[in-house]
């Protein structure tokens, strides 16, 4: 079969890489892809924008594409699944109605409350003055969120009243574009975060291995929020007992509530959870797609062919599938970012050392890269590369990832030195 993967990040490189491990997948086409997908055997890039639904549809129908897998949230929120399905194509990813679970934090919060899913106390505002009054009444610390899609950067944990008020002003003044039409103000939950990505056909929902992301730019989880600076799986904090609760209290309730609203949700439902020191769990957010960089540590440990699971979701027969099989051991990934990220950064810096890194036993997933006119790999984004390693345990996987990343060079390269610090303790 031929598969079209929509997106150009590290997640999409990992999806293409994993799909091509199967003998059933003869070719993967990435739209628009990156420098890494351009270098994969039996993979090609198609230079279309992720919102060019008509162009993708025409290519897929003319070239015998069997399946479309959508990586990023933006085209899902814009309705890519609905459009491509109307053209007769099989698509993995929820329709526009289901994608609201990520595209609107206010909509997702209302769904959680309706479904009795444990979550933080929150209120939604359309005016800055009302939001600020609520913050004063609730007290600090508090969390301020832009309502819509903000590339993982629209959440501000305010430790002072001034920080909360300036965050509210920034959102309403358009710092996050149309994501700032509403502001969600939430209680600040304490504990450890864990990402649970689950596959669903709208009836059955099965979690993948739990992972833990590192959102902050600086060592010791300091500095600004990012799209994610590294991850590891399986996260030990998500014990079998906790995962059983996640299944019944979060995942199954969410799918049942979506179904009760007439939404046929087939794809990934990603629950970002906070686990309190006493073991209490609450949902911070839902996402409608594979996580990034969590996908880059989950898929290398997956033993069941990925396309079998995806097809079972699309064809609504996930309940008939045997249990998902996993490799033994642990996986870790470290993100190499452009200097200045998550703020302003330069593009076009030539990257060297990828073959040397991979010779050291890691897999380098490209995130923000492209082939320049000289056919060299160059930087093309804030998060540039994901260096992923598998080991028999976390110390081995993390050490190997850091051995690999030391081979990489480009002007301004930056990466955290403490990915996995919780499990190493």
From TrEMBL:
Q: Name one GO molecular function term.
A: metal ion binding
Mind telling me which Pfam families this protein's record contains? GARS_A, GARS_C, GARS_N
**Associated pathway:** Purine metabolism; IMP biosynthesis via de novo pathway; N(1)-(5-phospho-D-ribosyl)glycinamide from 5-phospho-alpha-D-ribose 1-diphosphate: step 2/2
Q: Has UniProt tagged this entry with the keyword ATP-binding?
A: yes
Q: Which domain of life is it from?
A: Bacteria
Instruction: List the catalytic activities from the record.
Output: 5-phospho-beta-D-ribosylamine + glycine + ATP = N(1)-(5-phospho-beta-D-ribosyl)glycinamide + ADP + phosphate + H(+)
Q: Which UniProt keywords apply?
A: ATP-binding, Ligase, Manganese, Metal-binding, Nucleotide-binding, Purine biosynthesis
Q: Entry's SUPFAM superfamilies?
A: Glutathione synthetase ATP-binding domain-like, PreATP-grasp domain, Rudiment single hybrid motif
Q: Which EC numbers characterise this protein's activity in its record?
A: 6.3.4.13
Which residues does the UniProt record annotate as the domain ATP-grasp? Answer: 109-315
Per its UniProt record, the required cofactor names are: Mn(2+); Mg(2+)
Q: Which GO terms describe its biological process?
A: 'de novo' IMP biosynthetic process; purine nucleobase biosynthetic process
Q: Which family does it belong to?
A: Belongs to the GARS family.
Designated name of the protein: Phosphoribosylamine--glycine ligase
Organism of derivation: Nodularia spumigena UHCC 0039
> Taxonomic classification, please?
Bacteria, Bacillati, Cyanobacteriota, Cyanophyceae, Nostocales
Q: Which gene holds the coding sequence for this protein?
A: purD
